[in-house]
Amino acid sequence: MDIFQLFIVQPIFNLLVAIYSIIPGGDFGVALIIFTILVRFAMWPLLKKQLHQTKAMQKMQPELAKIKRETKGNRQLESMRMMELYKKYDINPFSSIGLLFIQLPIFIALYQVIQIFTLHRDKIDAYTYVFLKGLGPVHELIVHPNSFNNISLGVIDLSKQAFSSGIANVNWILLILAIVSAITQYIMAKQTAPKQKSKKRLRDIMNEAADGKQADQADMNAAMMGSMTKFLPIMMFFIMIALPGAIVLYYTISNIVAVVQQRSILKSDVEEMIEIADEAEDITQNKKATAKARAKQAEEATVIRIKAKDNSPRKDKKRRKS
Q: Where are the domains of the chain?
């Protein structure tokens, strides 16, 4: 085995095998669903950090636009000021790549694991860790590799593609999963997409640029983001219908969990901002109450002092008469 096989493929293979061994009936698709959920929750801290960074980047857009206007095309000065701004807001512009670096190897490794179970079952013994070989379902799989069931939940063929037998014979379950994966991909993008003030399309901006009008960078970024939000799900749909059912199942479940995670994180951020606002309001009210109390105390003290001054002459007159 090479390094990728040893440190990425084999651990994923054995984690799936371990989950598979404890599932009644030995449904590999269910094992794959549980594996996907575990992976998504393991990435929760990275996802939370990425969403915070994304929101912070959106809030910074007016300041970034101001820097571009003030630097007037001086790329070096613009880059320096942008890096200072990132540092000020504690933003790493490359943080979004972190999740990709984790998910991409898993995606590739999972594809190879599916190949082992469907096309190269003679390698199951070589990839299985020694301490797992004693488990009943795993031992049975090693001794009788052809006992592996490609069908999950009675309907999903993990080894086939949506159009594996041509357009005439469509696997409707896998086609529906591919559609769901595309829809959830779109929802994920919309959850983190900035609110566009400009309704200009990328085509409109390019036409204006051709007419000699300088394009606004904020409008350009918003238009490109909008185009990617629409294009990426379509591209993922065509990729999904060309991959084995196990990969489609993994990607679809991963997207569904990601949508729920992102909604939860974004909702908690809003609630956190409300709590901060409430705390700030309470502090303001407390300050006002304290200020009123102090003013009242000062007023009472002034009245007492005035009374004291008024009483002192009367006492002097009484003493003189006596």
A: 161-243
